[in-house]
Amino acid sequence: MLKKVRMAMIGCGGMARHHLRNILLQSDTTEIVALCEPSPAALAAAAEIFALNDLPVPPNEPDLARLLAKYDLDAAFIITPHVYHHAQAKACLEAGVDVLLEKPMVMNAAEARSLIETRDRTGRLLVVAFNGSLSPEIREAVKLLRSGELGKLLSISGTIWQNWGPGTAGQWRQNPAISGGGFMFDTGAHLLNTVADLAGEEFADVAAWTDNYGRPVETLAVVIGRLESGALVTLHGCGETVRSCASDIRVFCTDAILRTGAWGAFLEVQRQGEDTLTPIELPPSLGAWEQFLAVRNGDFPNPSPPEVGLRMARLYDAIKASAAQGGAPVRCM
What we know:
Elements: E1 5-10, H1 14-23, E2 30-36, H2 40-52, H3 64-70, E3 75-78, H4 85-94, E4 98-102, H5 109-122, E5 126-129, H6 131-134, H7 136-147, E6 153-162, H8 164-167, H9 176-179, H10 188-199, E7 203-211, E8 220-227, E9 232-238, E10 245-253, E11 256-260, E12 267-271, E13 278-279, H11 288-296, H12 306-324, E14 330-331
Parallel strand pairs: 1-2, 1-3, 3-4, 4-5, 6-9
Antiparallel strand pairs: 6-10, 7-8, 7-14, 8-9, 10-11, 11-12, 12-13
């Protein structure tokens, strides 16, 4: 029997509490040793989840440096506002702690390169919590696409939508100094990352148009891209629609059409000669933490290393640069 992983949850906000519910279903593999949350309201909300599961609330140490010095940890799950990701992940890695880091990984490409250097220097594990990359569905989709059995990649079309604008009004997610961007940098990060995973190659050129819809950050975006192979990509993000959060990604190849979502969750394929998409059944997943532990145990190579954070930062920078020029195509660097 494997020894339980002693972990700390860095942040107890809304997304952290979503993950917490799944982590508490994995008590056979995980012991939450401590929390790190400066907000009394967020801490109280997390405490309610422990209480509903008849579990004691772990001690809270809101100062990360003191937490790392005080507790013997194997891993940390960092789920805090984006501006803190780089410093917090760097501190944990340098303390000898493996890290699962909520997306978007960092604020910019320079911070991404810094975390890659820290990962290499410390030898610790760093996994970015992109649900798509970590899902069985996207891993299987990537396997199918790389095998060649679906034929040559022609184009990819991806759409993601949510009532993000009204739902995050007045919150840190719409403060670019803290969030790093708007809908396409936050929820849309899943779309950018998963499409890049499926493509399996870099973007060569990008043209983009965005609209803030009267808010401090973009909530609407349309992106046209060309991959290095010449395959074409369209990305559409709408963060101002009805109460919802969903996505649809279709990959068109010469011998098949593949359909999935930005978070994985489902996978369908229509092969040459077939009339409809057919679901591919895969084992269910309890989410990012379960997949992180599987990577940590060596069950499969890390599908979401910090290099994907650098890839997404470069793509988002290209989208911003094109949008600032009224949709003029820009080279992805």
